[in-house]
Structures are given as C-alpha cells and as structure tokens.
Amino acid sequence: MLKVKQISIIGFGNVGYELSKSLLSAGISITHICTRSVIEDSNFPNTVFLTEIDKLPIGQLTLICVQDSEIKNVLSSIPAETPCAYTSGAVRLDQLNCKGELGVFYPLQTFTKGVAVDISEVPFFIESNSEQFEQTLFDLARQLSKNVKYANSEVRSKLHLAGVWVNNFTNHINFIAKEYLDGQNLDFEDLKPLLKETIRKLESNSPYDVQTGPARRGDLETLDLHMKMLNSDRKEMYQLISKSILKTYGKNDKL
User: Fold this and answer.
1) How large is the average pLDDT for residues 63-89?
2) Cβ(108)–Cβ(156) under 8 Å?
3) pLDDT, tens digit, for every residue of 244-253?
4) Which terminus of the chain faces fewer neighbouring Cβ atoms within 10 Å, N or C?
C-alpha cells in the first residue's frame, strides 16, 4: 500500500491543529495548511499557510478539518485527482458527491488548542469509497494511534451521538455546576476530586453499576429540596435527569 509522506490540511481549528501537530510528530510532512486568514505558526516552519483551496497541491492527500456544514462546499473546490478525507463523525459518506477518492478519518476525541491529548489513545474510525484508499487511511491512522477501526457511516453516527452524551453534555453540566457555585461564592475546584473519581470508576465498572446519589436511592425529599434551590431553567433540567435515573432503577419518579 502507498505510505503517506506528505499531507495538506484544510482547516486549522481545534481538530486541524491537533492532527497537524500529531502527523508532524509522526514524521509526515505537512506541506500546506489552508485557513480562513493567512497565519504563521512557529510549530510548522516548513509549512505553507494559504487561504485559497485551489492553490493546494493536486494529487496529494488532503485532510478536511472543517465544520460539518462546510465539508460539501470544500469538496466542490477540490479536483477529482486529489484524494480527500474528512474528520467528521456525523456526515455520511454517501451524502457527498465526490468524483475521486474520498474517505473518513474520524478521531473520537475532544480537542482544544493548548490542551495536550495523548493521540496514541484516541480511537480513529476509517471509511472510504475505495478499498485501497481505505487501507491507506487506516495505515496513516495507525501511525498516530494504537486504536484504529473501520466503521461505516451508520456506525460512526451512532458513536458520534454517544460522544455528545459523554463529552458535550457532561461538560455543559459541569459548566452549570461551576456557574451555580460562582453565584454562591464557592469554589468549583472542590468538585474536581469528585469528577476524577467518577471517571476512575468507569475504568473497570459499568455506568449502571456505579450510579449513586438521591435519584439512585429514590430520595424524593432531597430531590425536591434541590429543585427548590434552582431557577426554572435549571430546575427543569435537574428534574428531567433525575426522572431518568429514577426510572432506570425502578424508583418512584413522581417528582
């Protein structure tokens, strides 16, 4: 199989930045990065930064690291001779009109610039409209991670949905907790050991088995007390989640 030695990147947000750094560390040359505005980054001294897609090398593998809504438009600007892969978990391959080789190079992880991630632990899910190109993308991902799998669009969309529950919703709930404590002049730092233990338990246990708290116990009195302490929007969210926990464990959910 063809081993990738050079790559172009479109998009330099959280995903594009992290993948660019990781690929460079793996010995792969990032020859060009296409961004909305021309920038300079000392981490990529040999990379050409540009703003026009039509100036990217034709025929060289290009990773598209842009928002889901922009993928189709970006692809329309790329010649058929250029093999492309995008990094979205939600966009189906069969919904994109591409004359050449097209694939998915999906890292199931949250990325934030300035926050280090162990890329070797990140699961990558690969799909393509070409068996040979799919193998090329798989081999490329293996240079970054020890956890690489093939996954069609249906499987990938299910993983993406589950990822939203695990990461995006969880983080938003943490934001709500911090917002509440800030309003009470209390310190969110005091919750971090609790957060760490919550994740540590999941290393060797099912989420179902380690659920604790007033809803797990069916303690309606405490749940009612908590809801009285919250404003209407937060109260509704607290009640909805508590009802789900109560129902899961066969408790009285008449809050």
Assistant:
1) 95
2) no
3) 999 999 988 7
4) N
What's the CA gap between 183 and 181, in Å, rounded? Answer: 5
Q: Say whether pLDDT at 90 is over 90.
A: yes
State pLDDT tens for residues 142-158: 999 999 999 999 999 99
pTM: 0.91
Give burial (CB, 10 Å; 0-12/13-18/19+) of 179: exposed
Task: Report the phi/psi class of residue 133: left, alpha or beta, with left for phi > 0 and alpha for psi in -120 to 50.
Answer: alpha
All structural domains of the chain, each given as residue ranges with its CATH number in brackets, are: 6-151 (3.40.50.720), 157-248 (1.10.1040.20)
Backbone angles phi, psi at 100, to 5 degrees: -110, -155
